[in-house]
């Protein structure tokens, strides 16, 4: 297909849809129409989404013994084909792709998925633009108990409390170059306390979606696409999620006056994502920010796992973590 001008083609019949098939072939989309992709690919060998669609109590079951199981290299190659193939094709020059992805701990081995993905995509036509650390604050893989029980060299296993938001850019002119000053001002995001204390840094403190809040095993919080869509696209632009899942990205894009396209292979999630267009935005009115305090170098841990000074300040610190945002 010949490359088409974004604003002239987004009004086509392909936009504002969730397609019930694999993103490996996005034939509905012309070349160069997507300004931003925001997505979280399926976790490698951690969650069986097919099982969850019928029995969510069994969702955290390894895919290792499932039909078509991929080893780690196959998984990375598959992601590289999708992002370096169809996603790159449909992205406009200068457009962005934000991938939310974490490391994987499996059977005692630690897999550096985000870093290996960067290596593959930067040889597939993408430029590495930015990394943002999503600090989950209240959730993660707890491992520090080993270190607490055996505080000796070689036993350090920290809790894993983060995923990465990897932002790639397709070579080309900046997306603001085709915008006039009025359009830029209309799309400006607020420079407020939340921005200066959290969003301005490349570590974002965002609590996960509460368990059982959505009928999907691992939706990322709406705050992630809410921030990224405002940072990397303009109203009227097309936002893509090739792994739509519960529809977090597509729902938020609609609320932010962007066009959207999603792809999802599990029918139950397709129906869920389509239903959620009618829901109000669920960005939490109070956002977490980091609160720092000085702790003595060898302040002992007391009852409840806190230092003496930390216990005295716990209530004050908890109150300081909230900032109101305008949704």
Short structural description:
With 327 residues, the protein is an alpha/beta fold. It contains 11 helices and 12 strands. The chain is globular and about 65 Å long.
Explain the overall architecture.
30% of the residues lie in helices and 19% in strands. It contains 11 helices and 12 strands. It has helices spanning 6-9, 49-54, 72-90, 113-121, 144-149, 181-186, 193-199, 223-232, 248-255, 267-275, 308-320, and strands at 17-19, 34-39, 91-101, 104-106, 109-111, 127-135, 162-169, 203-205, 238-241, 259-263, 286-288, 322-324. The strands form 3 sheets. It has an 8-stranded mixed beta sheet, sandwiched between helices. A two-stranded antiparallel sheet has the order 4-5. Strands 11-12 form a two-stranded antiparallel sheet. Strand 4 (104-106) and strand 5 (109-111) form a beta hairpin. The longest helix is centred in the first third of the chain and has 19 residues, at 72-90. The radius of gyration is 21 Å and the shape is globular. The two termini are 39 Å apart.
Compute the average pLDDT. 84
Which structural class is indicated by helix and strand composition?
alpha/beta
What is the CATH architecture annotation of the largest domain? 3-Layer(aba) Sandwich
Number of domains: 2
CATH superfamily of the largest domain: Vaccinia Virus protein VP39
- Main sheet properties: 8 strands, mixed
H and E order: HEEHHEEEHEHEHHEHEHEHEHE
Strand order of the largest sheet: 1-10-9-2-3-7-6-8
Shape designation: globular
Share of helical residues: 25-40%
> Which ranges are low-confidence, i.e. pLDDT below 50, for 5 or more consecutive residues?
1-5, 47-68, 310-327
CATH class of the largest domain: Alpha Beta
* DSSP strand count: 12
Task: Evaluate the radius of gyration.
Answer: 21 Å
Number of helices: 11
Percent strand equals 15-25%
What is the CATH topology assignment of the largest domain? Rossmann fold
End-to-end C-alpha gap: 39 Å
